[in-house]
C-alpha cells in the first residue's frame, strides 16, 4: 500500500515543477477568457467608433462610385485611385483593428502573466499520432471542450436572436434613412448587438477559468517519490553531503596541522585543550590563532609542536579562554592581550636562552585571564 501511495499523484506541484513547466510554455490558459476580452473590446470599439467609421466608409464608397473621365484615358490613374481608397479605408479601420489586436495580446496576461518560451515553438510530432488524437477527443478534456462549444453556440445564438428581435423595428427603419445616416446607425446597432451578445459569454468564462486552473495544477501534481527525488537533486544527497563535509573538515585539519610548525607557542590545558598562537610584528595587529583542538586533536597538536621545537606552555585558564572565544585565523580578543603578552615575553626569553644560554626563564603562572572568559569559572561547564 505504501508503494502504491508513493506512485499516486496526490501531492501539490512544487515551485520548481511549476517553474520548469513555465519554461516549457506550459501555463494555465483560458481560451474562453481570451475570446471574451477580444469580443468585448471589439464590440465596444465598434459601438463607440460607429459614427466615425460610417462617415469614413461613406466617403470612400461615394468617391469610388463617382466616374472620372481620366479613368478611361489612363490605366495608371485607376490603380492610383484604388490605392488611395485602400489607404483611406486602412487608416479609418486602424484604431479599431489596433484595439482588437491589443486585446488579443493582453488577454493571456490576465491568467499567466508575460511569458515567452522558445520550447513551446518546437514541433511535437507526437501530436500527429492518430491514436493520441483519438485519446484527446474522447478524454475528459475533450468532453469538457465539447460541452463548452455547445454551450457557447446555444447561449450566443439565443442572445443574438433575442437582441435582433428586440431591435427589428430599428433595423427596418434603416431603409427609410439616407445612406450616410443609415451606415452610421447600422454600425452603432451592430456594435450594440455584438457587445451585448459577447457579454453573455461571461457565464462561460466564470465556469471555464476555475476549471482551467484546476486542470493545470492537477496535471502537474507529483508523487511522493518525485518530491523526494526533487529534494535530493536540489539539496543534494545527504550521504554525499556528509562525505563532502567530512572531506572538508579533514582538509581544514591538515592545513591547520601544517601551520603548527610556524607557531610561536602552544598553550595547553594541559591535556584537554591546545591552542597554537603566532605573532609577526609589523604584519599582525595582535597574535593570531593558527591551530586549536580538544582531546585527540589537542594531543596531535602537542606532538607536532614538540617535534618542531615549538614551546609548550601549560596555562589552563588561558587555554580554555582561547579555545572557547576564538576561531582559526582570528586574532585574540583584546581582553586577553595582557595574558598573551606575558606568554610571548616568556617565549622570546626562551629563544634567547636556547641561542645564548644563561639563566632559564621561568614560565608564567598567574596570567591575568578575566574570569568571564574562562568557561570553568563562568559556569559554562568546560573540563579542567
From TrEMBL:
Key words of the record: Bacterial flagellum biogenesis, Bacterial flagellum protein export, Cell membrane, Cell projection, Cilium, Flagellum, Membrane, Protein transport, Transmembrane, Transmembrane helix, Transport
Annotated compartments: Cell membrane
Protein's UniProt keywords contain Cell membrane: yes
Biased composition (Basic and acidic residues): 7-25
Region feature Disordered, mapped onto this chain: 1-26, 361-384
Signal peptide: none
InterPro entries xref list: FlhB, T3SS_substrate_exporter, T3SS_substrate_exporter_C
Gene3D superfamilies: 6.10.250.2080, secretion proteins EscU
Record-linked Pfam families: Bac_export_2
Membrane topology: Multi-pass membrane protein
TM helices/strands, residue ranges: 33-53, 89-111, 153-176, 188-214
Keyword Transport: yes
Family of the protein in this entry: Belongs to the type III secretion exporter family.
NCBIfam families, per the entry: flhB (TIGR00328)
Annotated function: Required for formation of the rod structure in the basal body of the flagellar apparatus. Together with FliI and FliH, may constitute the export apparatus of flagellin.
Protein name: Flagellar biosynthetic protein FlhB
Species annotation: Thiobacillus sedimenti
Gene: flhB
Amino acid at each position: 500500500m505504501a508503494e502504491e501511495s508513493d506512485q499516486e499523484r496526490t501531492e501539490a506541484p512544487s515551485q520548481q515543477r511549476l517553474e520548469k513547466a513555465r519554461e516549457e510554455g506550459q501555463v494555465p490558459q483560458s481560451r474562453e477568457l481570451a475570446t471574451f476580452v477580444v469580443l468585448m473590446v471589439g464590440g465596444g470599439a465598434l459601438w463607440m467608433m460607429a459614427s466615425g467609421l460610417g462617415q469614413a466608409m461613406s466617403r470612400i464608397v461615394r468617391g469610388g462610385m463617382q466616374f472620372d473621365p481620366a479613368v478611361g484615358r489612363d490605366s495608371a490613374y485607376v490603380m492610383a485611385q484604388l490605392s488611395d481608397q485602400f489607404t483611406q479605408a486602412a487608416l479609418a479601420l486602424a484604431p479599431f483593428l489596433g484595439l482588437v489586436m491589443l486585446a488579443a495580446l493582453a488577454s493571456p496576461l490576465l491568467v499567466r502573466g508575460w511569458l515567452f518560451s522558445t520550447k513551446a515553438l518546437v514541433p511535437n510530432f507526437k501530436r500527429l499520432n492518430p491514436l493520441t488524437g483519438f485519446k484527446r477527443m474522447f478524454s475528459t478534456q475533450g468532453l469538457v471542450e465539447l460541452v463548452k462549444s455547445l454551450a457557447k453556440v446555444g447561449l450566443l445564438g439565443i442572445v443574438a436572436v433575442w437582441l435582433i428581435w428586440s431591435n427589428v423595428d430599428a433595423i427596418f427603419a434603416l431603409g427609410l434613412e439616407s445612406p450616410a445616416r443609415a451606415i452610421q446607425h447600422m454600425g452603432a446597432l451592430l456594435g450594440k448587438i455584438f457587445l451585448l451578445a459577447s457579454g453573455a459569454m461571461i457565464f462561460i468564462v466564470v465556469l471555464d477559468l476555475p476549471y482551467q486552473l484546476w486542470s493545470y495544477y492537477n496535471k502537474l501534481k507529483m508523487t511522493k517519490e518525485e518530491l523526494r527525488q526533487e529534494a535530493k537533486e536540489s539539496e543534494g544527497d545527504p550521504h554525499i553531503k556528509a562525505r563532502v563535509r567530512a572531506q572538508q573538515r579533514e582538509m581544514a585539519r591538515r592545513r591547520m596541522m601544517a601551520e603548527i610548525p610556524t607557531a610561536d607557542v602552544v598553550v595547553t590545558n594541559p591535556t584537554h585543550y591546545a591552542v597554537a598562537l603566532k605573532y609577526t610584528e609589523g604584519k599582525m595587529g595582535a597574535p593570531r590563532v593558527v591551530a586549536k583542538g580538544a582531546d585527540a586533536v589537542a594531543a596531535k597538536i602537542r606532538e607536532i609542536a614538540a617535534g618542531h621545537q615549538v614551546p609548550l606552555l601549560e596555562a589552563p585558564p588561558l587555554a580554555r579562554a582561547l579555545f572557547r572565544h576564538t576561531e582559526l585565523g582570528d586574532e585574540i580578543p583584546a581582553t586577553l592581550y595582557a595574558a598573551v603578552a606575558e606568554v610571548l615575553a616568556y617565549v622570546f626569553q626562551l629563544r634567547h636562552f636556547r641561542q645564548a644560554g644563561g639563566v632559564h626563564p621561568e614560565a608564567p603562572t598567574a596570567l591575568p585571564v578575566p574570569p568571564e572568559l574562562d568557561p570553568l569559572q563562568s559556569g559554562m561547564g568546560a573540563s579542567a
